[in-house]
Amino acid sequence: MVFRRAIALIIGLAVPLVGMQIIGAPAQAAELKVLSSTALKAVLEELAPQFEKATEVKVVLTIAASAVLKARIDQGAAFDVAVLAPNLIDSLAAAGKVDPNTRAAIARSGLGVSVRAGAATPDVGTAEALKRTLLDAKSIGFNGQGASRVGIEALFAKLGIAEELKPKIVLLKTNAPEGVARGEVELALSPISEIVAVSGAQLAGAVPAEYQTYLTLVAAIAADSPSADAARSLIKYLTAPAASPVIRAKGMEPG
Length: 255
What we know:
Mean pLDDT: 90
Order of helices and strands: HEHEHEHEHEHHEHEHEEHHE
Largest sheet: 10 strands, mixed
């Protein structure tokens, strides 16, 4: 009860948790296993430690592509909170793996183009400029298992260059900005939030508005979570107004 009152106070005040100590936090803190899409990595790496400090609830993060995490859950991986693409959360709910009543949109990120840090920044500011940049690139990468793959392939089709780009496409096994930072590809497409989190990559620009698609990430609590109260508190914190500045700073939009 003390734990829930403390969390409610934090969220109600909507202030950052850094440096705060909650008097009366539980003596034996819970541990939350959180499985999250790579697109939310930078956000969670900043907000999870703040949540831990305020609540004494340990957050154990597992970050990977949404499809990879969904497969692990299907195979019986233990977790308390999953943060994945909406269709995957819906599928887990239908299978009884997550409680649909706990479903909450956390953040969304638009698609962006990245190049290796220090490289010349290509023009992607208009549809024609993006089209020329993609056609001129020697190689283009994106995560083959990422939730944004559908949107990226739809972009190529809308631009009318899907067939021409096929020989240049590299399906990466890691997030795309890491691939471009290592020199595996010349250009990469991914959620912008992934780009700003990789020091060896730089954002060339967002996909033009008329061709933009967004990756939305939704959280839900495992149906058999032993720490459901703490899990609900974490989701409330991630969706509280106090989290919004961090979410925006990491290239995403709240909700």
